[in-house]
Amino acid sequence: MKVAIIDKKQCVACGCCVNICPKNAIAMFKGKYAVVDEELCVGCGKCSEICPASVINMEVVKND
Amino acid sequence: MTKKPWYRYLWIFSSVYILLGFFNILFAWLGLICFFVPIAIAVFGGGKSYCNNYCGRGQLFDLLGNKCGLSRKKDMPRFLKSKYFRYGFLIFFFAMFFSMLFSTYLVFSGARELKEVVTLLWTIKLGWGFSYAGGVTPGVAQFAFGFYSVMLTSTMLGLFTMVLYKPRSWCVYCPMGTMTQLICKAKK
Fold it and tell me: What is the ipTM of this complex?
């Protein structure tokens, strides 16, 4: 399944993804960048769509 | 449905702020809240919760761009997202800000007359005397005109990039956002 992967170096820490995530799977790390809890992420892609810096990619991770 | 917390309505404050500038320029002073609060939060360990939760302008762009569909929702050009542009814009913005403070100082000291003008995009001068009725020290009014110019200019830029790119594109190059993130990074 797909999971949101954030490019930490390019993240502007605006918080759009944190607010839109329906699973509360994203948190802001000390105002520096957003981090995804891959256990909670359902791969809906809302964060990727809203991210103004377009630094969130939906990537397939091997998970069975 | 959970009830929306009060701070999700701060977009009203940001909208009203811009409108008030058309009626009485002295309300521009209120905009200092949007300067000092994010810095204070970042300095005292609150991270970027200003951007994340309380920024009315971000909420306004989100509302207009996402809910009202006024955004193309396209990726921003790579250059606008780069650190060069973000840090460059921060420096430029603050240079302009300090030049505005200096003009204010000149009016305070009496070396220069009050100019009832709002400057858009640091160049276009708009006669704004209609929203000033006097009654305060000229320097106090000069700061209001200058600060409102900063706020109106950045709102216009934000609306422009909202329409062209993602709704909250402004957040990528917002000088306050860049600065608070730098403060957070410096704190380790």
Answer: 0.91
Closest CA to B56 of B183, B149, B171: B171
SS (H, E, C) B83-145: HHHHHHHHHHHHHHHHHHHHHHHHHHHCCCCCCCEEEECCCEEEECHHHCCCCCCHHHHHHHH
Beta bridge partners of A28: A34
Structure tokens at B151: 């706020």
Q: Which residues of A touch B67 (CB under 8 A)?
A: none
Domain edges within chain A: 2-60
Which of B39, B61, B166, B178 would best serve as a mutation to test chain A binding (most A beta carbons within 10 A)? B166
CB contact (8 A) between residue B73 and residue A49: yes
Q: Side chain identity at B23, as an amino acid letter?
A: F
Architecture of domain A2-60: 2-Layer Sandwich (3.30)
Could you tell me which of B85, B37, B72, B83 has the C-alpha nearest to residue B57? B37
pLDDT tens for each residue of B65-124: 999 999 999 999 999 999 999 999 999 999 999 999 999 999 999 999 999 999 999 999
Cβ within 8 Å, pair A31-B47: yes
Distance, in Å, from the CA atom of A7 to the CA atom of A16, rounded to the nearest integer, reads 15
